[in-house]
């Protein structure tokens, strides 16, 4: 699947719930967000049909996201169904890690290929400030348990902000020193409450880590489906990655699209426009119209976002990442 900018699109992130058991301050506003009704959420059968259509178009890497995807009933059964689809390449999961330890055995049986665990700090007090929960130990136990499965690709997703100091960044990177963990620093997206926070830039983190650990050497190897680029540090088993949508805009190499939990296809986070796939799914039992609509929408994928522009036209406004699918 190629869009009109001749980018190969082979990766889709599918949100399976808008519910989350954390309230991260840059994701959920103080007043909360209105939860979707159960009938508005895509069913397992509808998600499988979507996956079949994406695969037929050459999009065979699927990330299951939320909210917190482990809050969806029998999400492991859904992942197992997706893994069985002919043509699928990789199925991975993004989770906050709070419930991951108890789900890991079933996720492994389902055939999951990789897990991204969202974790911004190793400081318990700062963790509580960010998430409004005292769950850091549970997350760290989940990380340790996930690493016990040698075939499983395990990454940490860290969104650094002014809530964290230099020690937090240094300590997060150190997780990659003695284990095969890849630690990725992700720039804060100016979406919903995220607009109110200042992110650490990639260049600032690079300077801090090089001062602490020595030279970061850019690697040519890709360690996932998305736009991250990775560095090795002498003496580190894992890698340090960066996803820097603002300071190092990667739109020219973007290979992904998103499906929200209520079935909207988003080809770019910046724009409000989306395609209502749920409506198509529920109007027809066949996949021809669905595939044609997906193809056309992806073909028309915008060339790039305009988050750094003063022009607010088309911007998604106050929609939160939990509503879109992180």
Structural class: alpha/beta
Measure the end-to-end span: 23 Å
Secondary structure tally, helices: 10
Average pLDDT: 91
CATH architecture of one domain: Alpha-Beta Barrel
Q: How many strands appear in the DSSP assignment?
A: 12
Largest sheet: 12 strands, mixed
Molecular shape: globular
Q: What proportion strand?
A: 15-25%
Q: Order of helices and strands, N to C?
A: EHEHEHEHHEHEHEEEEEEHHH
Question: Remind me, CATH topology of one domain?
Answer: TIM Barrel
In the CATH scheme, the class of one domain would be Alpha Beta
CATH superfamily of one domain: Aldolase class I
Give helix % range.
Answer: 25-40%
Catalytic activity: GTP + AH2 + S-adenosyl-L-methionine = (8S)-3',8-cyclo-7,8-dihydroguanosine 5'-triphosphate + 5'-deoxyadenosine + L-methionine + A + H(+)
Organism: Aminipila terrae
InterPro entries: Aldolase_TIM (IPR013785), Elp3/MiaA/NifB-like_rSAM (IPR006638), MoaA (IPR013483), MoaA-like (IPR040064), MoaA_NifB_PqqE_Fe-S-bd_CS (IPR000385), MoaA_twitch (IPR010505), MoCo_biosynth_MoaA/MoaC (IPR050105), rSAM (IPR007197)
Keywords: 4Fe-4S, GTP-binding, Iron, Iron-sulfur, Lyase, Metal-binding, Molybdenum cofactor biosynthesis, Nucleotide-binding, S-adenosyl-L-methionine
């Amino acid at each position: 699947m190629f869009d009109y900018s001749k980018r190969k699109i082979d990766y889709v992130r599918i949100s399976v719930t808008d519910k989350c058991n954390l309230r991260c301050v840059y994701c959920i506003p103080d007043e909360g967000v209105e939860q979707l009704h159960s009938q508005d959420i895509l069913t397992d059968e509808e998600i499988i049909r979507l996956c079949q259509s994406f695969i037929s178009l050459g999009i065979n890497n699927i990330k299951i996201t939320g909210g917190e995807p482990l809050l969806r009933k029998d999400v492991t059964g859904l992942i197992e169904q997706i893994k069985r689809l002919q043509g699928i390449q990789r199925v991975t999961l993004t989770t906050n890690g709070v419930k991951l330890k108890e789900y890991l055995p079933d996720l492994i049986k389902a055939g999951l290929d990789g897990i991204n665990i969202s974790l911004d700090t190793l400081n318990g007090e700062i963790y509580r400030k960010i998430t409004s929960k005292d769950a850091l130990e549970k997350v760290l136990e989940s990380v340790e348990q996930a690493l016990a499965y040698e075939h499983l690709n395990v990454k940490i997703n860290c969104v650094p902000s002014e809530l964290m100091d230099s020690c937090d960044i240094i300590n997060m990177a150190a997780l990659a020193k003695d284990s095969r963990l890849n630690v990725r620093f992700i720039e804060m997206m100016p979406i919903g409450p995220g607009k109110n926070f200042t992110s650490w830039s990639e260049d600032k983190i690079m300077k801090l880590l090089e001062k602490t650990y020595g030279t970061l050497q850019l690697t040519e190897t890709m360690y996932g489906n998305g736009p991250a680029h990775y560095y090795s540090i002498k003496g580190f088993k894992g890698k340090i990655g960066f996803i820097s949508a603002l300071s190092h805009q990667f739109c020219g190499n973007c290979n992904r699209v998103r499906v929200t939990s209520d079935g909207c296809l988003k080809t770019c986070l910046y724009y409000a426009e989306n395609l209502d796939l749920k409506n198509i799914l529920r109007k027809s039992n066949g996949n021809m119209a669905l595939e044609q609509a997906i193809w056309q929408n992806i073909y028309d994928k915008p060339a790039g976002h305009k988050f750094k522009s003063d022009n607010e036209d088309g911007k998604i406004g106050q929609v939160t990442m939990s509503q879109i699918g992180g």
